[in-house]
Amino acid sequence: MAYQLNFEGKALDAYNAMVAERIATAMKEGNLARDDLTVRMLRPEDLGLSNPEFTFSITAAQWNTSQISTTVSNNRWIGINGIILEETATPSAGTQLKFKLAGRDARYWQIQGINTTQNSTLFFQDPLTVDANTNITMDIYGKTTDTDYRLVLLGVVVEKKGILTM
Average pLDDT, stretch 120-134? Predict the structure, then answer.
């Protein structure tokens, strides 16, 4: 099974392992002590989106390429472990997600039917991890057209303290 409906069992284990790995990688690559790091929820801006919301415009019967296309900032390490389809989105608009890291295929997640799950939420047992200074792109296959497709990516950011100011 590639995904899970509840945040427990293997999905929770995968999340905890992802967070521990992101912290270890940040400490090693950033030459930082654990006390120099903070762990927080993933925001749309962390993935290059200009507005503070995960909203996409997709067209039917095609891959909508580079819905996300950015290079992760220095001193920031990302993990993506799930998605939520907001109620305002067309339920069957997107059916597949494809991620590339540094131009290479990294994940291919089938998400058709997410609207029939509890809270329209999926947690993946194979989280995607993205290192600092790495390019990430996300493509969405559109089953139907939706100019306000609200697909929230769930995950964490491990970063050097003080980068994000509130």
Answer: 95
Q: Which residues pair with 108 in a beta bridge?
A: 98
pLDDT digits (tens, 9 = 90+) for 83-99: 999 877 666 788 999 99
pLDDT for 93: 84
**Residue 122 in contact with residue 4, Cβ under 8 Å?**
yes
The alpha carbon torsion through 91, 6, 14, 75 (nearest 10 deg) reads: 60
Q: Looking only at Cα atoms, what is the longest distance across the chain?
A: 48
Confidence (pLDDT) at 5: 59
- The kind and range of the H/E element at 76 are strand 76-85
Average pLDDT, the chain: 91
Q: Under a CB-based contact definition with an 8 Å cutoff, are residues 99 and 136 in contact?
A: yes
Which residue's structure tokens are 């089938």? 110
Q: Look up residue 74 and give its two tokens.
A: 């220095």
Task: State residue 1's pLDDT score.
Answer: 39
CB atoms within 10 A of CB 85: 23
Q: How far apart are CA 115 and CA 90, in angstroms?
A: 9
Tokens of 163: 């980068």
Residue 123 CA, chain-centre distance (Å), reads 11
8 A C-beta contact, residue 93 and residue 58: yes
Domains of the chain: 3-160 (2.60.120.1170)
